[in-house]
C-alpha cells in the first residue's frame, strides 16, 4: 500500500517525522507499507521549513508542489490543482494528512475526489471558532476523512457527536510529542542564549502569529506593550514569524528587554522553551509542548482546540484583551502557576500505533 504523507507548513514537520521513521522501520521489517513524501511548499523558507527537515532527519520530499504564499483561496487552489495532477499521474492508495493547515484540507479534498482514502492525524479537535482558518480546515478535512487518528478523548467525543462510527476512530496519542520526547536530549543552545546572557527560568519566550492578534497594527502593539510593561524587566525572547514581522516593522516598538530574533529551528526553540520561566503564545502546538515539559504557558486566544492543555496541563487561556496579561504575569512571578500533568497516550509511541493500524487496513 502506497501512503502519501502530506506536509506543508511548519507545524506539520514535527508531526510527520515520527510517522516516516516508523514506516521506514516497518518497511525494514517486511511490511507492505510504502510512502511518498509530498511537500506542498506552503512554507518554503529555510527557517520555516528546511531547518526542520534537517534537524528532524526527515528525508528529502519525493515531490514538492511549490505552492508558495497567497490568500487562503489561492493557496488552497494551487495545492489542490497540483496535488490532483500528481495523483492523476501517479496515484497512491491512501493520503495521510496531519494537523489543520491549508495543505491538510486542500490535499484531503483532492485525494477524496479521486476516491482515494484519507487518514487524518490529529483529527477531531475543535475550537468551535469559525473565524480561524484552521477550524475550517479541521472541519472540512474531518468531514471527508476515512481513518481518524486522535490525540485526546475529547477529540473522540467530537467525532462521535458528528456521526463518525467508532471503528474509524483510532485514539493513538500525539505524534508532536513523539518528536519532542525523542529529541529532548538533543536540544541545542541557540546563539541568543549567550548573546543575551540568559539564565534558566530567567526569561520569557513569546510567539505570536494568529491573524486575530497580528494583522492589525494597534492590536499587536497593545499586546506587546502590555507584556513589556508587566515583565518586571526580564528578557522577552521573541522569535518572530514572517507574518508578524511584516506588521511589526511598522509599529515602532523598541524596548530594552524585548528581543526580536528570526524564527528558530526546532532543537534551538525547544531548548529555550524548556528553560523558560514561561511562554506567551497564540500557537496550538506549543501549548502541548509546554504541557509535556511542565512550563507555564499563557495563550493569547479566546478558545482552544486543545482543552486538555488547560484542564490538565500548564496552559491558561488569557483571551485577546491585553488587560488579562498583568494579572497572569503577577501569578507567574509569585510562583502560583499550576504544575500540570501529561495527557493520556502522549508517551512517545504514537507513530508506532498509527503504523500498526495502517498495517491492518
Ligand atoms: C500557517 C498555518 C497555521 C500555523 C502556522 C505556523 C494555515 C491556515 N495556517 O499560518 O495554522 O500555525 O502556519 O507557522 O495553514 N511566509 C514566509 N515564509 C514562509 C512561509 C510563509 O515569508 O516560509 C509568509 C507568507 O508569505 C505569508 C505569511 O508568512 O505572508 C503567512 O504564511 P501562511 O502560510 O499563509 O500562514 P501562516 O500564518 O504561516
Task: Characterise this structure.
The protein folds into two domains: 188 residues, Rossmann fold; 149 residues, Rossmann fold (3-Layer(aba) Sandwich), CATH 3.40.50.2000. Helix content is 44%, strand content 15%. The strands form two sheets. It has a seven-stranded parallel sheet with strand order 3-2-1-4-5-6-7, sandwiched between helices. It has a six-stranded parallel sheet with strand order 10-9-8-11-12-13, sandwiched between helices. Strand 9, helix 11 and strand 10 form a beta-alpha-beta unit. It is globular and about 55 Å long. Uridine-diphosphate-N-acetylglucosamine binds next to helix 1, helix 2, helix 5 and helix 11.
Q: Write the CATH architecture name of the largest domain.
A: 3-Layer(aba) Sandwich
How much of the sequence is in beta strands? 5-15%
State the distance separating the first and last CA atoms.
9 Å
Provide the number of structural domains. 2
Characterize the main sheet: 7 strands, parallel
* Strand element count: 13
Mean pLDDT: 97
Gyration radius, rounded = 20 Å
CATH class of the largest domain: Alpha Beta
CATH superfamily of the largest domain: Glycogen Phosphorylase B
Give the distinct bound molecules.
Answer: uridine-diphosphate-N-acetylglucosamine
In spatial order, strands of the major sheet run 3-2-1-4-5-6-7
Annotation field: number of helices: 16
User: How helical, in percent, are the residues?
Assistant: 40-55%
Structural class determined from secondary elements? alpha/beta
CATH topological fold name of the largest domain: Rossmann fold
Amino acid at each position: 500500500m502506497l501512503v502519501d504523507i502530506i506536509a506543508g507548513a511548519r507545524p506539520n514537520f514535527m508531526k510527520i517525522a515520527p510517522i516516516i521513521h516508523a514506516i521506514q522501520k516497518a518497511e525494514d521489517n517486511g511490511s507492505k507499507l510504502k510512502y511518498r513524501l509530498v511537500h506542498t511548499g506552503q512554507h518554503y523558507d529555510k527557517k520555516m521549513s528546511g531547518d526542520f527537515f534537517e534537524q528532524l532527519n526527515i528525508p528529502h520530499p519525493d515531490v514538492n508542489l511549490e505552492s508558495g504564499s497567497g490568500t487562503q483561496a489561492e493557496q488552497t487552489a494551487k495545492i489542490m490543482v497540483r496535488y490532483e495532477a500528481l495523483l492523476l499521474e501517479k496515484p497512491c492508495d491512501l493520503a495521510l494528512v496531519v494537523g489543520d493547515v491549508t495543505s491538510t484540507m486542500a490535499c484531503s479534498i483532492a485525494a477524496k475526489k479521486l476516491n482515494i482514502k484519507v487518514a487524518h492525524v490529529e483529527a477531531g479537535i475543535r475550537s468551535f471558532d469559525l473565524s480561524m482558518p484552521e477550524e475550517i480546515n479541521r472541519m472540512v478535512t474531518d468531514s471527508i476523512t476515512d481513518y481518524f487518528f486522535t490525540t485526546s478523548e475529547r477529540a473522540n467525543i467530537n467525532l462521535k457527536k458528528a456521526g463518525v462510527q467508532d471503528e474509524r476512530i483510532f485514539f493513538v496519542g500525539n505524534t508532536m510529542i513523539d518528536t519532542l520526547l525523542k529529541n529532548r536530549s538533543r536540544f541545542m543552545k541557540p546563539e541568543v542564549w549567550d548573546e543575551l546572557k540568559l539564565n534558566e527560568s530567567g526569561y520569557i519566550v513569546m510567539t505570536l502569529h494568529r491573524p486575530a492578534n497580528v494583522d492589525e497594527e494597534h492590536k499587536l502593539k497593545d499586546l506587546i506593550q502590555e507584556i513589556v510593561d508587566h515583565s518586571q524587566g526580564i528578557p522577552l525572547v521573541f522569535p518572530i514569524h514572517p507574518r508578524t514581522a511584516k506588521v511589526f516593522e511598522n509599529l515602532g516598538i523598541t524596548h530594552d528587554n524585548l528581543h526580536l530574533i528570526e524564527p528558530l529551528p526546532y532543537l534551538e526553540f525547544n531548548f529555550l522553551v524548556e528553560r523558560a520561566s514561561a511562554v506567551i503564545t497564540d500557537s496550538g502546538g506549543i501549548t502541548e509542548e509546554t504541557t509535556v515539559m511542565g512550563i507555564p504557558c499563557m495563550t493569547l486566544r479566546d478558545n482552544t482546540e486543545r482543552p486538555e492543555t488547560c484542564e490538565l496541563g500548564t496552559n491558561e487561556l488569557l483571551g485577546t484583551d491585553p488587560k488579562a496579561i498583568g494579572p497572569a504575569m503577577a501569578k507567574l512571578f509569585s510562583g502560583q502557576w499550576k504544575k500540570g500533568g501529561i495527557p493520556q497516550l502522549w508517551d512517545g509511541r504514537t507513530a508506532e500505533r498509527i503504523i500498526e493500524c495502517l498495517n491492518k487496513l
